[in-house]
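Entry for the shared binder. Reason: the reviewer on the internal report wants the predicted structure included alongside the sequence.
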Amino acid sequence: MTTPAAPLPKYDQQQLAAFRTRMANERTLLTYVRTSLALVAFGLALLQLHPERGGPLGYSALATAGAVLVVGWLRFRARRREIERTRSRLSAPGPPRAGLRAGATGGGSAAGAAATAGR
């Protein structure tokens, strides 16, 4: 005798999409951090192994690492604010927005139309 399977939990697709978007933004920041750390390692290796000839290139690699880290952090903050603004705009009650109508997404898929028609 088999036991019936437990019902699957119901998920809010919009909330799941917001989680995926936030995680993608965090992954992008981590990519900038990884690139910056690789440049730091390269610059320090040059400075340790060849201080006379590798000095200028080593210092420029360290400076580039700092610039990459700052650019990544600024882009992360900008995208995070944009995500939060979009999330608050989508969750605010009010009349339907023109950009969320079925067919206005430009995708033309039946799944996309069904997902936006319920809002």
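Summary line for the report: Helices lie at 13-49, 55-91, 110-117.
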